[in-house]
Specification:
heterotetramer; A: about 160 residues; alpha+beta; 4-stranded mixed sheet; B: about 80 residues; 5-stranded mixed sheet; two-stranded antiparallel ribbon; 2 helices
């Protein structure tokens, strides 16, 4: 997220509003969705992923997420850079929760603002698919009778 | 500086540790991983992926002193 | 949004969480997105449309939305019913703002919760496209030097 | 009961009114619209769409007493 402060002898401030975050606090979805609304935009598409109570009929009590944090940041930033080259979108925000999450709590929010909604839908869907493939974060499901690290994307 | 090896999630449980420092000898990723698995055989029960200096490893890269190697299972974030 | 209260001699409460609303108050996007998270779901996709500052280079000062309210409700409900037949989604919420809206304020929120995100993305995009085509709501753009009712979807 | 005609947005501005009550005589939609436009000629400057009893009108339906007819421009919500 480079901020170009000066170009030639004129001060040009380019506010870059993309963001990626890892947090152990509850995620404010609406806040993430509205954090960046560029004046030329008309639509934001937000993907909000959360803890399922049942997976294949088995009840999950809670989840734990762990990240390789510095690499996760780099990978999220790569996804943002790639999406901004591939899709006509203005602003992208990714927030991923870490630590213990209760049923129904949000684990990930990806918001994409674009002048036209079609690009926002396409970019948001691409971003969540790639995040689940490349960003080094792991999920442990805790059941009444045990626990299991999930290996790979089974969502 | 040693080569630092990091474990996460399932590999941290299998290795019983989150970090390991190896000697400074230049090795290939394959050699390094084989030696880590020899020491922590439970790792062999998992599909493993690797990162070198916080980048996904594509093939059999060479690891030098000071490098950071991560050993983990396929990611499951989102 | 029928609520089946009794079936045979057993009291069965089927909480139907779909919703459609017209409101002259600011929309809480996060609230709309999280209002219904069925236990079997894993993802909610939310479309958040808002007032553009510039359209074709012309600056909008504010917007006014007007609805043929009873028909708008019926049409939104039809969209929800149709989407739930066509896509594998669990819960749909549509909220549309009416009256005067300032730049950047949210005019519409459509949230779709589904067990699998692909269906949520597809249904949400279909719903906003159809809403803009069939639901009797009209937008007036107010400029520094005049105003204009927008006729048809130019988004 | 009369036939109630409703206007919204651009058509309310063009007609200078939001509502109009017509007689109870059964007419076709085409006849009714033509007569409304004759009385409010600015409506002819707009592309018009119609609803009968809160349903989009598909063709030249018959309007009966007590029906609610809405005359509006293509919608622009969202």
């Amino acid at each position: 997220m480079p901020i170009i402060l000066a170009e030639l002898d004129r001060l040009i401030v380019k506010p870059t509003v993309d963001f990626c975050e890892l947090t152990s606090l509850p995620i404010d979805i609406g806040g993430a969705a509205r954090r960046a609304v560029p004046p030329e935009c008309g639509a934001t598409v937000t993907l909000d992923g959360y803890v399922r109570q049942f997976t294949n009929g088995r009840e999950t009590l809670y989840l734990e997420y762990e990240a390789y944090e510095p690499m996760a940041f780099k990978e999220m930033q790569k996804l943002i850079d790639h999406a901004k080259r591939e899709f006509e979108v203005s602003t992208i925000g990714i927030v991923h929760r870490l630590g213990r999450l209760e049923i129904g709590e949000t684990s990930v929010v990806i918001s994409v603002a674009a002048p036209h909604r079609k690009a926002a839908f396409a970019a948001c869907e691409w971003l969540i698919t790639e995040l689940k493939r490349t960003v080094p974060i792991w999920k442990k499901e805790v059941y009444a009778d045990g626990e299991q690290w999930i290996e790979g994307d089974h969502a | 500086m040693p080569i630092q090896v990091l474990f996460f999630g399932a590999t941290a449980d299998a290795a019983g540790r989150r970090q390991l420092n190896l000697g400074t000898e230049t090795v290939t990723l394959t050699t390094l991983v084989a030696s880590v698995i020899r020491e922590h055989p439970k790792l062999a029960q998992h599909k493993l992926q690797f990162a070198i200096n916080q980048e996904h490893a594509a093939g059999d890269e060479t690891i030098r002193d000071g490098d950071e190697v991560a050993i983990f299972t396929p990611v499951s974030g989102g």
